């Protein structure tokens, strides 16, 4: 009789644990997802171009 009581107790606890498990739901939003990126990119390429132009138009280059 004690074994039957333990089995019933175990099954009752098992059913209680199974019924109380959390549920995860994934829902599609009604609006599209907006990603706002405010990025500021600055490059100093002018310095490299000026150095290359100085080398091209130097008196030693023979262009003039």
Structure described in brief:
Helices cover 45% and strands 0% of the residues. By secondary structure, it is an all-alpha fold.
Write a structural description.
This protein is mainly α and 64 residues long. Helices cover 45% and strands 0% of the residues. It has 2 helices and no strands. It has helices spanning 2-19, 46-56.
Number of strands: 0
Q: Separation of termini?
A: 113 Å
Global structural class: mainly alpha
Described by strand count, sense and barrel closure, the largest sheet is: none
Question: What value does the average pLDDT take?
Answer: 77
Radius of gyration: 38 Å
Number of helices: 2
Write the H/E string, N to C.
Answer: HH
What low-confidence regions span 5 or more consecutive residues with pLDDT below 50? none
Estimate the global geometry from the Cα principal axes.
rod-shaped
Strand content: under 5%
Q: Would you spell out the secondary-structure blueprint of this structure?
A:
Layout: H1 2-19, H2 46-56
List keywords for this structure.
single chain, 64 residues, 45% helix
């Amino acid at each position: 009789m004690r074994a039957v009581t333990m089995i019933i107790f175990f099954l009752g606890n098992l059913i209680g644990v199974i019924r109380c498990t959390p549920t995860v739901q994934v829902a599609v939003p009604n609006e599209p997802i907006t990603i706002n990126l405010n990025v500021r990119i600055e490059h100093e390429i002018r310095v490299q171009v000026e150095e290359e132009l100085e080398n091209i138009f130097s008196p030693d280059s023979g262009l003039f």
